[in-house]
Write a structure and sequence with these properties.
The chain has 110 residues and is an all-beta fold. It is 0% helix and 56% strand. A four-stranded antiparallel beta sheet has the order 1-6-3-4, with no helix packed on it. A three-stranded antiparallel beta sheet has the order 5-2-7, with no helix packed on it.
Length: 110
């Protein structure tokens, strides 16, 4: 959590070979609001690697809407994902410092 920017930064490594893992990110002291920025690093399989002539593992940047106290995201199989989610406390100020905020992850493996 970065209090100055009013955002939560979440880093997740999904080590599962084949399965995306859907997770709820909960804000317990405020609300998410705005566009979350998602940065993913992934390749076609767990043995993919880059070389001087081929880029099999790629970085992708995308946006997702984050509203309310819950943000749901499906983390792709064998990936690393960083998400920056804007948030505000119940008084519409930026979320408090990391030690004072309550947020959590709920995994839903199907």
């Amino acid at each position: 959590m970065t209090a100055e920017a009013g955002e939560v930064v979440v880093n997740v490594t999904n080590r599962h070979r084949e399965q995306a893992i859907t997770t709820d990110i909960l804000c317990q002291t405020g609300r998410f609001g705005g566009k979350a920025t998602v940065y993913e690093v992934n390749g076609p399989d767990i043995k993919a690697e880059n070389s001087m002539t081929r880029q099999a593992v790629k970085n992708v940047t995308k946006e997702a809407q984050a509203r309310g106290d819950r943000f749901t995201y499906a983390f792709p199989a064998h990936s690393f994902t960083l998400i920056r989610i804007p948030c505000h406390n119940r008084l519409t100020a930026p979320c408090p410092a990391a030690g004072a905020v309550g947020w959590g992850l709920l995994n839903r493996i199907k």
